[in-house]
Amino acid sequence: AEILTDEGVTVLEIVDQDRQVIIRPDTGVVLGVFKSGYRVHPYKETLITLTQAAIGDGVGVGSAGLLRKGGVGWVQFEYEETQSVAGVDFRPFVTASTSLDGSLATSWIAGSQVVVCDNTLSAALYDRTALKVKRYHTANSLESLTLEEIRAELQLTLTQTAETFAVQVERLTNESVSEKEWN
Question: Are residues 142 and 135 in contact, defined by beta-carbon separation less than 8 angstroms?
């Protein structure tokens, strides 16, 4: 059906039962057009509520943000207390990320990459040494995921992440570097 707006613009309305349009409600930006089986993983419920329930107590939000006009979101949780090993201070963390624009699967990552922008989120997502849980945006993708699965698949304990990072720092700070290698 054609619709004529008050501004004199003709808009073509198409109804397709096999497709859905995802629109950011606060800005009206179209984030994507997807098949009907695509499942939105809402930011608050997925990134905050589910992640906090999986991680447990003793953590706080270290950083959070939206990228790509709100099409991608992340929340990074970290220990509330700074830890130290070999003179290096750090806070182990878990990053939860997802997208509404179809560009990312929902992921939980335990690692050492601080996320502050698009580039650092990409670095964290593609870090081969990080522990990850990933779920694609399919019809029952969140219903089939339990807190126990997140913990088990990701070994989602910040204590373990802290211990792994501490071992890495200890190994790197004890590595000898010759003057030739330094130069």
Answer: yes
Winning range, highest mean pLDDT, from 41-45, 54-58, 111-115: 41-45
- Residue range 152-160: average pLDDT? 67
State the Cα–Cα distance between residues 82 and 171, nearest whole angstrom.
Answer: 20
| Closest by Cα among 127, 129, 132, 126 to 107 | 132
R_g over Cα of the chain? 21
- Structural contact between residues 61 and 73, judged by C-beta atoms closer than 8 angstroms: no
**Helix-strand-coil split of the chain, %, nearest 5:** 30, 30, 40
pLDDT value at 167 more than 90: no
Length reported for the chain:
183
Match 């004529």 to its residue by tokens.
4
Of 59, 96, 99, 107, residue with least CA distance to 74: 96
The CA-to-CA distance between both ends of the chain, in Å, stands at 70
Contact in structure between 158 and 56 (CB atoms under 8 Å): no
Average pLDDT over residues 113-120: 82
Query: Counting Cβ atoms within 10 Å, is residue 50 exposed (0-12), middle (13-18) or buried (19+)?
Result: buried
What is the arithmetic mean of pLDDT over 100-105? 92
Distance CA 47, CA 76 (A): 9
122: which 2 tokens? 């990409």
